Amino acid sequence: MDEKGCVKCGSKDARTKEVAMTGTGLSKMFDIQHNQFVVVSCANCGYSEFYNKQSSAGSNILDLFFG
């Protein structure tokens, strides 16, 4: 596979992290964090992309980030 690297700086060094966020309405009022995402960020410039954790992409998150 030909990895292109970060779309902003071209670096191929990336980090992943799982985060949870509230939605709107009652979930925001009661601080219910049911929206889960995987964040992929470039270790060089900090450019980040959020991916829905429940998506079918699963283990290919880094492949999506690198193109």
What does this molecule look like?
The chain is of the alpha+beta class and 67 residues long. The protein has two helices and three strands. The protein has a three-stranded antiparallel sheet with strand order 1-2-3. Strand 2 and strand 3 (48-52) form a beta hairpin. The chain is elongated and about 40 Å long. It starts with 13 loop residues before the first strand and ends with a helix. Pfam families: Zn_ribbon_13. This is Zinc ribbon domain-containing protein. InterPro entries: DUF2082_NA-bd_Znr.
Report the structural category: alpha+beta
Q: Report the strand count.
A: 3
Order of helices and strands: EHEEH
What kind of sheet is the major sheet? 3 strands, antiparallel
pLDDT < 50 runs, ≥5 residues: none
> How far apart lie the N and C ends?
10 Å
Beta fraction: 25-35%
Determine Rg (CA atoms, Å): 14 Å
Specify the number of helices. Answer: 2
Shape: elongated
Protein name: Zinc ribbon domain-containing protein
Organism: Paenibacillus artemisiicola
